[in-house]
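quick one before i forget lol
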Amino acid sequence: MLDPRAFDIPQFLGRLPLFSDLARPELERLSSGCQLRRYTRGEVVLHPGDPCDAFHVVVTGQVKLFGLSPDGHEKVIELIGPGGSFAEALMFLGKPCVVNAQALADSLLLSVQRHAVMAELQADDRFALRMLAGLSRRLHGLVHDVQAYALQSGVQRVIGYLLRDQETHDAAGGGAVTVSLPVSKATIASRLSLTPEYFSRVLHELEAAQLIEVDRRDILILDVQRLAAYGS
């Protein structure tokens, strides 16, 4: 288990795309405005209405961003793994949190305080461009999700999720590859705006078509190219 007391915050920040252009003195200055905190599985990181005076980077573990409907149904908005961040835009706007953030596993999070970020923005134009690029990637991802929900069938969404990291493998010639689901099938179904029952039916359909084999959270894709073609 990672010991927060021995954790080199400047070195970790320097490995993130957002801060990779900063020199060690700048990283050390930024790290003075950072805090490390452990969260146990199921612990809430942010509630709607909480002040956003920092953004958060996942060091280890995984965090789920989700909203709740008036009748209590959960909609997963994003799953954040190691190296991923959240709450940047709200931090800049000075607005309270609008979603829930919850640890899906025992997690270590690094909070980067607003005052430290603003000081670096004023000192270095490159840092401002990096922040803009990061926010733009997040916005692009959200737009892509909206398009998928509106234009793609449930089967296409599931296949797209299974193939999301397989572009390099596919270009190299396809073949079999195993995808390990990082969270429960119900959580992934919510992320794709599907019911858990429909998500399971799609997996059964793909398995019956001899495109995948399901073993709990491990899904063996028998042929990447055939699966992609089925989705189209």
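fyi The chain is about 45% helix and 25% strand.
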